[in-house]
Amino acid sequence: MRGALLVAGTSSDAGKSVLVAGICRWLARQGVRVAPFKAQNMSNNSAVTVEGGEIGRAQATQARAAGLEPSVRFNPVLLKPGSDRSSQVVLLGKPVGTLRDYRQRDFGATVLSTLDGLRRDFDVVVCEGAGSPAEVNLRDGDVANMGLARAADLPVLVVGDIDRGGVLAHLFGTLAVLGPADQAMIQAFVVNKFRGDRGLLQPGLDWLTGATGRPVLGVLPWREELWLDTEDSLSYAADGVIGRPPPPHGDQWLRVAVVRLPRISNATDVEALACEPGVAVRFVTEPSRLTDADLVVVPGSKSTVDDLRWLRERGFADALVRSDVPVVGICGGFQMLGTRIVDHVESGAGAAAGLGLLDLDVEFEQEKTLARPVGTAFGHPVSGYEIHHGRVVRQAAPGLVERPDGSFEGAVTDRVMGTHWHGLLDNDAFRRHVLRWAAARAGRAGFVPAPDTSVAAARAAQLDVLGDLVAAHLDTGELVRLIERGPERDLPHLVVTTT
């Protein structure tokens, strides 16, 4: 079996990432050497690869679904928004500058050469589009959706989210607004997040096939347990609950408030807490939400100084300084907890006062730290990954993690922990220590961390669920034929008329 496929979506968060992961998992189970690929991603949730580069977190998850280590080849272009009008450009894993308009750069040659290499090295490459191919205002210079499909001769499968409503119009309209050559690449549809009686939906699916000449390859049901490793910011709603934690292992809940920064990055760090029985994790945008929290997490940020200013404007800074609630800061959030930040790189703001909860100073450097370190914390072996420009240049607070060379990373006091390491809470024994610490400070003697929660096992189980959904609810025979044969270009063309 050899070939490739592009999974496009009617919108962001329609289900492209999970469908690609599910197809990769299903193919890998069949013994197929499969790799994921996203030409161009725009996200502040990223991961560090085996080469020491940076890619979108969704592609790292898809790599794990395929049984691979994350590689820069799976996401050659990553755009990390620092504001509404500018993004840092990460090319083949390394930052190469900032764009105020991503169309200023032509990434086509890099994208196509990387995809060609993957197609030589793997039996199948499952590509993920970006946003929606129906964004006709962005069609010129497109390298992620129909531009990629036509340049690489990829059959396109379009997925739509029925939970939002209007999925038939979304699927039909996505096809209809495209030009004839782009329409010819779209071969089939998939409906995602369906709940209810399939029989009630079937007449609509029959109409869609009749109107477009393209089949619906399957309807994927809604599954509540699929929430880990969410990349899209739409999934991190303000004042929204993360995950669906089981009841407490003891007789009390522990309440965690995660500050929903405007430029939040790697928000997936806190998902490990939400895996724990009896731990209720919520994003918050108002300081009043901190009054009943047992633990506050200040997560990473793609614009640390700007988000620190936002903390002050919203009243979070005063609330955190005056409160006794324990605080964990991660990456940008860690930097905000210090005494002073000097940033001539990310924001150009120069010196800014931190919150002063940790006695340390941070300076930003041009070269970004990208690493997958290991160490020991509270007697437990830990690992994580680093993605940051800021470096600690003065520190009086005790270190949190001891590295193998005897140096320390992060900081810890009776009330505050901070680290540059993303993924530190994924370490099960370390996470349980943090929960016991927070519960003790909050006076929640009835909270007992579960002794056997494994975040790695939870993530692997979700990938297995995705593979099971593909096997049970997609026409896998037609999926394989589509991958092997490529696009059929004689499908009906829809004509949109305007008056």
From TrEMBL:
Keywords: Cobalamin biosynthesis, Glutamine amidotransferase. Pathway: Cofactor biosynthesis; adenosylcobalamin biosynthesis. Residues 255-429 form the CobB/CobQ-like glutamine amidotransferase domain. It comes from the Bacteria. It holds the Pfam family CbiA. Residues 6-227 form the CobQ/CobB/MinD/ParA nucleotide binding domain. InterPro entries: Class_I_gatase-like, CobQ/CobB/MinD/ParA_Nub-bd_dom, CobQ_GATase1, CobQ_synth, GATase_3, P-loop_NTPase. The active site is at C331, H422. Belongs to the CobB/CobQ family. CobQ subfamily. Catalyzes amidations at positions B, D, E, and G on adenosylcobyrinic A,C-diamide. NH(2) groups are provided by glutamine, and one molecule of ATP is hydrogenolyzed for each amidation. NCBIfam families: cobQ, PRK00784.1. This is Cobyric acid synthase. The lineage of its organism: Bacteria, Bacillati, Actinomycetota, Actinomycetes, Pseudonocardiales.
